[in-house]
Write a structure and sequence with these properties.
about 170 residues; mainly alpha; elongated
Length: about 170
């Protein structure tokens, strides 16, 4: 699709995915630098080991929602694809409701965890102490975004007619 034909939402989503892709790349770059420093110069900082992990988790959590609508998550479609009409729609709705419930539970649990990290002033002790809430904040934020996308997916499912005609299945 030409760039000028994309909607504002599609452009924002594209930039969002590109940004988190760069965050992931930065994590890989730091990891690679840490390996070179450790093996060649016999020098390493503990934060250089942790930072790539944190950046990777942030990138994955922030992209979980947008890729939901693209069907990029792992799923078993054998039963779902074998049925059409009302049974298919029922299965799709149940899948969406389960996804929404999962998102809400993990978002709420993440909020509780972050509030405890904040209240108890928890830190990840490295060469530079890092507030634990800052690292773990990706869980409630990412899952809240995921839940919004799951609600959008439910809306799509409710509007779709699963009558078995080509092009109507997804």
């Amino acid at each position: 699709m030409p760039e000028h034909a994309k909607t504002r939402y599609e452009r924002i989503k594209q930039r969002w995915m590109e940004f988190w892709g760069l965050v992931f790349f930065l994590g890989v770059l730091i990891n690679f630098t840490e390996i070179i420093c450790r093996t060649v110069f016999h020098f390493s900082l503990d934060i250089m080991y942790d930072l790539p992990v944190w950046l990777t988790i942030w990138a994955v959590m922030m992209l979980a929602g947008p890729i939901l609508l693209e069907g990029e998550h792992v799923s078993v479609d054998m039963v779902r694809d074998a049925v059409h009409g009302k049974p298919r729609k029922f299965i799709e709705i149940v899948n969406c409701l389960a996804t929404i419930a999962f998102g809400v539970v993990v978002t709420w649990s993440g909020i509780i965890f972050i509030s405890q990290c904040w209240r108890f002033n928890m830190k990840i002790i490295r060469c530079v102490p890092v507030p634990r809430w800052l690292v773990e904040m990706c869980i409630p934020v990412g899952m809240a975004v995921f839940t919004v996308y799951a609600l959008i997916q439910l809306g799509r499912v409710l509007r779709t007619n699963y009558d078995g005609k080509p092009g109507n299945d997804d």
